[in-house]
Amino acid sequence: MTGLCRRLLTVLVLGCGLTLAACGGDPTPGTFAVPAGSGASGADGEVTPQRLAAPAYTLDTGDRLRVVVFRHEDLSGEFEVDGSGAFAMPLIGQVDAAGLSTRQLEQRIAERLRDGYLVDPQISIEVLNYRPFFILGEVNQPGQYPYASGMSVINAVALAGGFTFRARENAIAVQRGGSGAPQVVVTADTPILPGDIIRVPERFF
Questions:
Q1: Which of 129, 156, 182 is at the close of a domain?
Q2: Residue of 44, 42, 88 whose CA lies nearest to 65
Q3: Quick check: helix, strand or coil at residue 120?
Q4: Which has the higher per-residue pLDDT, 9 or 178?
Q5: Which residues of 36-69 are buried (b: 16+ CB within 10 A; e: fewer)?
Q6: How far, in Å, CA of 169 to CA of 189, rounded?
Q7: Residue 17, in any domain of the structure
Q8: 51-106 confidence digits (pLDDT tens)
Q9: Containing H/E element for 199?
Q10: What pTM was estimated for this model as a whole?
Q11: Which helix (H) or strand (E) holds 8?
């Protein structure tokens, strides 16, 4: 093999080796692959609506209850959860209700009555009137409204007189759990719960 051929063969081998190293080796330090769907907003700045969790209903201020103590009409009655999250019953006095489901409240009352009053108390609780929800921002009549079972965001908007002409209808947010809870952008058919705060933002022309 002549000297020229040897040199050409050496160049080809080195070139192939560098190509294989570039294809199969680690990425160059300081470079990163950007994962698809990393959360960048679109060119128009729209926010994708999310699914809002709907946990089991828990009681709070403003809920009106019917408490039935079977075979004891003198202990039964209608009660409203006050600003402290409690209400008062005969014999046992103040009962803390905020944050409890109706089932949990039944158990709490039964335990209190079992402690020195009744042998085997049987309790039933029904929510007569739910606490209101709130809708704020770009609706014609913002404010506080009574809750009805099965309501959705668009029902709430209709109850508040509909959108104003400035409303950004595709960016409605709901706060669930009080004014300090995070705002979640939702769709118009999202169910709402008592105590929810619905916010309709203003659009930019």
A1: 129
A2: 88
A3: coil
A4: 178
A5: eeeeeeeeeeeeebeebeeeeebbbebbebebbb
A6: 12
A7: no
A8: 776 677 899 999 999 999 999 999 999 999 999 999 999 999 999 999 999 999 99
A9: strand 197-200
A10: 0.68
A11: helix 3-24
Instruction: Give the pLDDT of residue 204.
Output: 82
Q: Which CATH number does the domain housing residue 105 bear?
A: 3.30.1950.10
Contact 97, 87 (CB under 8 A): yes
Instruction: Give 68's strand partners.
Output: 124
Domain that holds residue 96: 64-129
Tell me the average pLDDT across 17-45. Answer: 33
By the 8 A CB rule, do 167 and 202 touch?
Answer: yes
Give 146-157 as a DSSP string: ---TT-BHHHHH
- The residue with tokens 């075979």 is 71
SS (H, E, C) 64-89: EEEEEECCCCCCCEEEECCCCCEEEE
Say if strands 64-69 and 123-129 run parallel, antiparallel, or are unpaired: antiparallel
Distance of alpha carbon 176 from alpha carbon 196, whole angstroms = 5
Give me 205's structure tokens: 């022309």
